[in-house]
Amino acid sequence: MNSITKLVEEKPWVGWVLFFTTMIVVFVLGLFAASIVERRTEALYTYRPATDISEWEPDSSKWGKYFPREYESYLKTKDMNFRSKYAGNVPIDSLAEDPRLVVLWAGYGFARDYSAPRGHHYAVTDVRNTLRTGAPMTPAEGPQPATCWTCKSPDVPRLMSTMGPAKFYASKWAALGPEVTHAIGCADCHDPKTMSLRISRPALIEAFSRKGKDIGKATHQEMRSLVCAQCHVEYYFQPQTSYLVFPWDSGTTVDDIERYYDSLNFSDWTHALSKAPMLKAQHPDWEVFALGIHAQRGLSCADCHMPYQSEGGVKYTSHHIQSPLKDVSTTCQVCHRESKEELMRNVFERQDKNFAIRIEAEDALVKAHFAAKKAWESGASNDEMAPVLKLIRHAQWRLDFAIAGHGSSFHAPLEVARILSTAVAKAQEARIHLTRILAAHGFNSEIEVPDISTKEKAQQVIGLDMPKLHEDKKKFLETVVPKWDAEAASR
Amino acid sequence: MNSITKLVEEKPWVGWVLFFTTMIVVFVLGLFAASIVERRTEALYTYRPATDISEWEPDSSKWGKYFPREYESYLKTKDMNFRSKYAGNVPIDSLAEDPRLVVLWAGYGFARDYSAPRGHHYAVTDVRNTLRTGAPMTPAEGPQPATCWTCKSPDVPRLMSTMGPAKFYASKWAALGPEVTHAIGCADCHDPKTMSLRISRPALIEAFSRKGKDIGKATHQEMRSLVCAQCHVEYYFQPQTSYLVFPWDSGTTVDDIERYYDSLNFSDWTHALSKAPMLKAQHPDWEVFALGIHAQRGLSCADCHMPYQSEGGVKYTSHHIQSPLKDVSTTCQVCHRESKEELMRNVFERQDKNFAIRIEAEDALVKAHFAAKKAWESGASNDEMAPVLKLIRHAQWRLDFAIAGHGSSFHAPLEVARILSTAVAKAQEARIHLTRILAAHGFNSEIEVPDISTKEKAQQVIGLDMPKLHEDKKKFLETVVPKWDAEAASR
Q: Is the ipTM of this complex over 0.95?
């Protein structure tokens, strides 16, 4: 050792080499340590400037002044160009893609018009345009209550803050047309003072409260899903009051909610062909997501649908809410090391497998509805039909729960397969009953399903007067809606 | 800078501090580098000593002298104590657990006796003990051909090397009893000279060759699955010759293999109740595994079922082939950072969901078989029954393919769900046809399924004389088997 001391004394450059080596190594270790610390800091990071935004400000551009990156990314929800199908941002007509749905929803608004969802930017436009909201020429006209606005606009919490929810829901949809003009935006999820996540809609708070849970105690990570769960859930309108309720009192699985609806004897409508008391599933995204592996591993909606972005050294949350497959590098690949192509193939494979089961279930249900119609015509009694109608109700509820959501076959592929397989089993069981009932009433052949190979043919089969519906809608859009917009602009 | 040189000159201990800091840091970096290099070395590592083991040595203890760690771990396949069910290493009676299976296999050996598999150690014992191999009192007696030995013992490649496969398969099972006495062991998968993985069974080589593929060109990682695929696959015995064939010529999915069997008009047996021409799926483990995410990510069977172990600084492959859930820390947790409990819960959840669909399919099939029996009794014609029998054949084939394997609901959960849901759909479709046929022949009520709530009741329902079968087996085990063992010992 002494010899090294001597060496350094004799040749000072050896000391320098030792010194600089140490410096370099320590510098690199410092980089690693900094990277670890930085990630912890990122997790705590929330930017909360003082703002002059009012409590229920529905105009997102006013929020955007303080949060230009978030706002600019939010504006991109205009772009729905996912896969070639969305070219031109035109809504995809789901009924044209799968005309069986027209038969399944016979007697209900969805048989008229049902499109794949577009970005939040289109929320108000699309609910005005859909045939499901009809053509109310006066504020007092139906067919829909104001409850249909609930998830479409930050004008809704603004209105509720003065009207109260009950009066809001009890209004007609057309009555609030001039008031609801801003598409889903900042105020729907954020507190303008602290910019914290905020639940703006009563239905979610009430559903938690009925279960004895205080949503105010949710963690930040839970809130990154719960603000979405204000709307992306299964819900129903209470009869008479049209009050919006989440049917979660027995739990949030498809079986739990079915039990809940059965216990209330609730149905959304009576099927035009089979006369079954039907349930329409909305989009139970949060409920299905909760049963999948990504939720089980602690992820929130925002982790994949609103990934972190970097711009000029600043990290922010993208508000261009969209399919994570649109930007695999900032979503899936944060955890998964596979190539974009491989990861997308994995997702599509899950969707394809469940799609096959879905079609089995739909085909069986279409046949069941027509067979039930034939059974009524052949003189079947209410007593004979009761078990059949229950099977049809449950089968279609399960099918709909599995397919009505956004991305369910990715969120919880096996749960969706399980649900769909019970739909197949129950629809087929209904057909077995119906075959026996029909034979008892003198009809023992296969039921002929009319030609429903296109949306138009299927709508004709169930007796819809589509030219009339379109004409009325056109008149409504050309005369009523401009008045709404003018009234809103004058405020 | 000069001041530091001076400082070192004046106070030599400062130089020493710099020196030792550098040493420590470089040492730690060295450890990291070594760990990286070691992992690369491990991947290449194969230990190949010179041995005096003969080409088809069936006695694994002779191999064990050179590979004590592998051999000792192999001996542990005796231990099947997985979950509480396996307490005492007693085989689990699957028919007692689910008596529906007795009805589904009516007319076939599996209705007599079907147990959950035990470790490789029990291969010869269990095939001697099962009622499916009957009680042949002479070498020429049936019911089974020698093909039933194919996967049970390293004596098989030894015998095939002298007899040739065709003559082996054409022998009676009892004729080769004295020759096949060693349980599955080293020679089944290893070359005694190089210790490389080796395919010892012709069926796999032939299946590859018919597809124009040379199995000799498989990579080492592929071989770590292919040696298992010699046995853990779907197979059938060719009629007349009993030649063992893998039905992969159209592909290896359940649909591909169904098409293959249909094109040959092949059936394993005619169902005792429905008279349907049935297919019995064996254990298509490799085929199902290939469709799951772990295979898609490049894993082999051995990665999880034969994990690496460390002992006294030596790394070796565990030959205690078992469920990876028995040792989560060396299997799942090599890649997954979740707790053992969490990972096991994930697996069980997948199994539970598919189990629910399985029971739907089984219940529907049981009813279909009894309804078909009733239809024949009511005077249904072959023409009327033909589409029904085809539906039953396909439904049960799919059910069986999904449930006959080991761990399929883990290996490819969604594929299994998809398969099971088609089984539900087809079984129910058969029942719809049958309802119509029965009505046409004057019977229009629900079919009563007899009491099959226990294995014993179900076996009585399908007309099995179990006391006789057990008595014959006992006699066979007490008189014939000891002679086989004596003859083997005298060699």
A: no
